[in-house]
Amino acid sequence: MRIVLVGPPGAGKGTQAAFLAKNLSIPHISTGDLFRANISQGTELGKQAKAFMDAGNLVPDEVTIGMAKDRMAQPDAVNGFLLDGFPRNVSQAEALDASLKADDVQLDAVLDLEVPEDEVVKRIAGRRICRKDSSHVFHVTYSQPKVEGVCDVCGGELYQRDDDSEDTVRNRLEVYHTQTEPIIDYYRAQGLVVTISALGKVDEVTARAMDALKRDK
């Protein structure tokens, strides 16, 4: 299957993408991974992306699209893939359609993870990260440490990242509504959108998504 995964920040896209890709035996292709791989490997596209990022500028669509096209052409993606974080706007969606059409293939589904805005803010603004090891993550509501402000694993101080503050989260949501959400209507016009609730436990959401994708086939 060839799937695009969309949803607001805090919807759990990265977590669901990993589980869904494994269940469907297709590669999980994320924008972040594309950037890191191309930059670390020193590809021409990676050099271009790094130059923009080092200057504090957004990476242009054509660079991101080029990376995505190269990755989708790899042998492990011949029979399908799950795109996470791409396309992020309608122009990228149009470019993706053109690229797939050139290869005589098409998307099977666009999975839309739906989460109420207040829940997104609660999820992200409630995160607390360990200063000693950022892989140790807690939450003021869903995963509280035994001692407030102290990491259960190593005893490090727990803190809220600047980009997890409520104001920043709401700004990120505004960017999502303005730039990325329009691709849902774009793909809905093609009959590709499958919307599911992303509320509940991780395995419940995964099962819901797998069921919806099977029914959509």
From TrEMBL:
Extract the InterPro entries matched here. Adenyl_kin_sub, Adenylat/UMP-CMP_kin, Adenylat_kinase_CS, Adenylate_kinase_lid-dom, P-loop_NTPase
Q: Which GO terms describe its cellular component?
A: cytoplasm
Annotated region (NMP), positions in chain = 30-59
- Which biological process terms from the Gene Ontology are attached to this UniProt entry? AMP salvage
Q: Which residues bind ATP?
A: 10-15, 127, 137-138, 200
Record flagged with keyword Transferase:
yes
Q: For binding AMP, which residues are annotated in this chain's numbering?
A: 31, 36, 57-59, 85-88, 92, 161, 172
Gene3D superfamilies annotated for this entry? P-loop containing nucleotide triphosphate hydrolases
Localization, UniProt = Cytoplasm
The keyword Transcription regulation belongs to this UniProt entry's keyword annotation: no
Which Pfam families does the record associate with it?
ADK (PF00406), ADK_lid (PF05191)
* UniProt EC number: 2.7.4.3
Kindly tell me the pathway this chain contributes to.
Answer: Purine metabolism; AMP biosynthesis via salvage pathway; AMP from ADP: step 1/1
**Keyword terms, alphabetized:** ATP-binding, Cytoplasm, Kinase, Nucleotide biosynthesis, Nucleotide-binding, Transferase
Any one Gene Ontology molecular-function term assigned to this protein's record? AMP kinase activity
The UniProt record lists the Adenylate kinase active site lid domain at 127-163
Q: Which reaction does it catalyse?
A: AMP + ATP = 2 ADP
- Assembly description: Monomer.
Please report which protein family the annotation says this sequence is part of: Belongs to the adenylate kinase family.
Q: What does this protein do?
A: Catalyzes the reversible transfer of the terminal phosphate group between ATP and AMP. Plays an important role in cellular energy homeostasis and in adenine nucleotide metabolism.
**Record comment regarding domains:** Consists of three domains, a large central CORE domain and two small peripheral domains, NMPbind and LID, which undergo movements during catalysis. The LID domain closes over the site of phosphoryl transfer upon ATP binding. Assembling and dissambling the active center during each catalytic cycle provides an effective means to prevent ATP hydrolysis.
User: This chain belongs to which protein, by name?
Assistant: Adenylate kinase
Organism the protein comes from = Streptomyces antnestii
Provide the taxonomic classification: Bacteria, Bacillati, Actinomycetota, Actinomycetes, Kitasatosporales
GN (gene name): adk
